[in-house]
Design brief:
Blueprint (H helix, E strand, L loop, with lengths): L39 H26 L3 H7 L9 H18 L7 H5 L1 H12 L4 H14 L7 H10 L8 H10 L3 H18 L4 H34 L7 H29 L7 H29 L3 H32 L3
Helix pairs in contact: 2-11, 3-10, 3-11, 5-6, 10-11, 10-13, 11-12, 12-13
């Protein structure tokens, strides 16, 4: 791609080598005048974006609709027309991690925290009322007064106090239960329960804690895939001919497949966000749910097709190997996700 006027001096400004044409054969820098007109900033940007846009969308098209094609093209040396595997994975992973934070929430738990002081004062008034009818009337009145702070703030606050966590109403009570039942599973639950009670004390209900954890879990998926990626490539290396296929080759396949998985997760996040706008009994909600299940189903199907096309084995052998690989990887990936989710829940803030 050419930008700007070529310099008469054929000495590269970057490395000092001789430049016979437009680009330096040693470092690749374009031998153009350092001082350019102002419009060069815009023309340069447009040309670069157009160039990037062309091979980016071509890469995405092959990634989504042609399983295994990107990996085969890369391994035979056709690399200039596509986004490099590592860059592609980093870009898709970044979007997956960033997206949940950009989407607005429907019921912000902070509203309840901000109204905590006001609610506590109003609760004292309720406790002073003796008549059950007056109590209900007062509660309805308080609900209307605090409507600006969020829907059903009073009900959620009352329910939060009554909600138990693993049959305990407080951390002290859970400690007592743990002293009687010292099983390992209960000890593993301990940090999670402690965090749950801490969030409840801040004014969060079980539902709100679940929503916070859901967001944390979604953000954990890219981390889990990144950690598991070399393991995935290693398992591919074990199952295939060591002389024909290098670990590097399996790594390229892993990068492309994980980029596809993350792209599917992005689609699921967006579809799930749209379903929150739809009524559960509406046709639109049903169609969105079908799309989500279809995207989930595409994940294993894509792997089987890509595996067959890349490694070019007989269909029977390919099905057996890919099935074993998929089962082993699912188990190990779930273990990785559980460990990271455990840590992420403890670190919720």
């Amino acid at each position: 791609m050419s930008h700007g006027k070529i310099r008469e001096d054929q000495t590269c400004q970057n490395c000092g080598h001789q430049v016979e044409e437009r680009f330096c054969p040693h470092c690749g820098q374009e031998n153009i005048e350092a001082i350019q007109p102002f419009h060069y900033l815009f023309t340069h940007f447009i040309e670069d974006f157009t160039h990037y846009d062309s091979y980016f969308w071509k890469t995405i098209k092959y990634l989504l609709f042609y399983p295994g094609k990107l990996t085969k093209e890369y391994l035979v040396g056709k690399r200039q027309s596509y986004v490099p595997p590592v860059k592609l994975y980093i870009f898709v992973s970044f979007i997956t991690f960033l997206l949940p934070g950009l989407l607005p929430t429907y019921d912000d738990p902070k509203i309840y925290v901000k109204a905590e002081v006001k609610i506590q004062e109003q609760k004292k008034e309720i406790l002073l009322l003796q008549s059950e009818d007056i109590h209900q009337k007062s509660k309805d009145t308080l609900q209307s007064k605090t409507a600006k702070d969020g829907k059903k703030i009073i009900d959620d606050t009352f329910n939060t106090e009554k909600e138990s966590i693993l049959n305990a109403n407080s951390m002290k009570e859970y400690d007592s239960l743990l002293a009687k039942d010292k099983r390992l599973l209960n000890k593993l639950y301990y940090p999670l329960v402690k965090k749950a009670f801490a969030l409840r004390d801040e004014g969060y209900s079980k539902k709100q804690i679940g929503e916070k954890y859901k967001k944390t879990f979604i953000k954990t998926i890219p981390k889990a895939l990144f950690i598991y990626l070399p393991v995935f490539a290693f398992l591919l290396w074990i199952f295939h001919n060591k002389k024909k296929w290098l670990y590097f080759d399996h790594g390229i396949f892993a990068l492309h497949y994980f980029s596809f998985l993350l792209t599917c997760i992005i689609v699921i996040i967006l579809l799930n966000y749209l379903t929150n706008y739809s009524l559960p009994d509406s046709t639109f909600y049903f169609i969105e749910s079908l799309f989500i299940y279809a995207v989930i189903l595409c994940m294993p199907v894509y792997f089987f097709i890509a595996h067959y096309r890349i490694y070019e084995t007989k269909k029977t052998i390919s099905i057996i190997k890919s099935s074993l690989l998929f089962i082993v990887n699912i188990i190990m990936l779930l273990v990785t996700l559980i460990i990271l989710s455990y840590i992420s829940f403890i670190l919720i803030h």
